[in-house]
Amino acid sequence: MAFPAAKAHSTRWLLFVACVILGTFIGIFFQHFSTTAPLFRDIVDFNVGVSDVDLLAARFGFHFGLRMNLGTFLGGAAGLFLVK
Q: Which percentage of the chain shows pLDDT scores above 90?
C-alpha cells in the first residue's frame, strides 16, 4: 500500500532540487556575458578529488564538486515558491 503523502513530499523535493540545478545552469550561462558576469560569478566553488586509487584488482577515482552562484539562489527561491 503506497502512502500518498510520502509521494507528494518526494515530488516536492524533486521539484525543488530540479529548480536549484536549473538555476545553477542558468547562472553559469549568464557568466559568459560581460554585462551579467559580475552578478552571476561563483560564490562557492569547492572541489575535492582523488584522481586515481589503484588496488591492483581495481582502479577507481573520486571527485566531488559544489558550485553556487546567484542563479542557484534564484532557482532555490523559485523552487520554494513552486512547492508551496
A: 58
